[in-house]
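Record pair follows.
FIRST:
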Amino acid sequence: MELGRSYLLSGITCNEARHVIGIRLEEFVGDQFNNLNLSSLPSLDFLILSGTGISGTILDQIGSLTKLNHLDLSYNQLTGSIPYQIGSLTKFIHVDLSNNYGLTGSIPYQIGSLTKLTYLDLSVNQLNGSIPHQIGSLTKLTHLDLSNNYGRTGSIPYQIGSLTKLTYLNLSINYGLTGSIPYQISSLTKLTYLNLFVNYGLTGSIPYQIGSLTKLTSLDLSVNQLNGSIPHQICSLTKLTHLDFSQNQLSNCIPHQIGSTLNELNYLNLRGNQINGSIPLEIGCIKDLVFLYLDSNLISGEIPSQLKNLKRLQWLDLSYNQLSGKVPPFITHNCNWTIDLSSHDNLEPYTPPLCNGDEHKNISLRIKISLVVTPVFLTFVILGFVFACLWKKIKVQPESTTTIEIGDLFSIWDFDGRIAFLDIISATENFDIRYCIGVGGYGSVNRAQLPSGKVVAVKKLHRSEIEDPTYLTSFKNEV
């Protein structure tokens, strides 16, 4: 069938000379990919085999496809390393090798030769080693995703500041990245998305130059070892809707300008730091705020009444701080809020009103306030809980069952997967949306803090995706 100046047959596109210039397949290919003689396709312009179940390695012959500008082998089962010959494909515009899970080795430094590249995605594999500094030569890149490569080491190269056309940068969940966030990142003034979540080894302070990224809508630097103050320049990022600095070692006060300038925020997470001072009154000005997490810090003072202006708020966690005074009545008047005020000995308890005549336990509002109780009452509570647990265990579990103590989840993984599962369910409150940190081509990634204190990323495959064999196979391979 003629299509303009080319012919299209079963996903194969040919030019008038009957040379194959494009392959775009959607049906299952499997290991037949290994039988493809790439060197016999010198005119190939695009090769798109995403989600076709191809396996094996990326052949060195790919270096002979010098006219290739679009390569998509994502969501497959490829293994082995990325051949260095890929550096010969200087006409590349789009490269996607993501979600293969089995690609290993380092990113070849020859990738710096692909100066026409605008899109590069190598995420969700097992690539290791450092990010080559030659990546700074890809000055036309608008999208760069190297996330979910657990063997990554080294620091973020400062040359990344040369990628001034980037709008999307994701280096999250690499675990081994170390060093500081290079201040040169401030040159990426077109960025709308920046994610460095779960690298553990990133240290130093948040560079104040980050205030130059005024087009950012999402900024996530959580679960690292960043220290120092939250730079007030962050308040220049007026288009932010998602801001997450949680699980670091940040200290000092929350800049009060956050409330008066970041008016489009709907997600603000500063939990698990060493932030002190009071809750800025100006936070009550963030009218679109839905999620507010300030728990597990050193925040003191009273809960500001200005929070009553957050009409869209659904989740408020102020637990494990040093708050004092009365709990404002407005906190308990909205039955759609989920609130955690636990572990505040100096907060005066407040009894929530009934909603629609229902009992407290049936309303959607959840308030946790630590109470100062007498030693006798506390003793009865503990004994009652112990006896209840023992009775339930006797009734439910067979005599042959061996009790396993929950501690470090990874130390018992091989012994009782049920406990591991229950810990994850508990840590994510049955995969509540609050714990969702990203949605990829399939499934969602959730953050879970386990009883041992470890923070892990957990991928959940949705029910509707289980019926798709491609998604299910990819999911099993990732496990």
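SECOND:
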Amino acid sequence: MSMNMPMPMKSMDMHMSFYWGKDATILFSGWPESNSGMYVLAFFFVLLLGAAIEVLSMLPAIKPGTRPVLGALTQASVYAVRMCFAYMVMLSVMSYNLGIFIAAIAGHAIGFFIVKFRALAKETQTQPQDMSPNGIPSKV
């Protein structure tokens, strides 16, 4: 090819507003295309990514006695994975497919619910129950 010849361009239809349908390109060219099964897989993939972002954001602190370099490296690694997942969800939502948008929001909500449920369950286990003078838990 000479320098003056234009490169052949592949035509891509890009949506600039939300639309509903299974014909979308999410993250990779040609995925999920027009295949309903692959669209459902993409939906659940984005949902799980959103949930993983929330769960990774609330990991427990590094144990006391851990070497500072090792603790910092572990936290930095988890943060890098979390940011990778966040950017993948962002790019998925930029397909402007309403189903994928709903999957991202639902994934974040489910992940937030899991994190808060675990925190509340742990908090109620550590709190002493109110006891009456005879040693029987009192009902409040």
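COMMENT: The mean pLDDT is 84.
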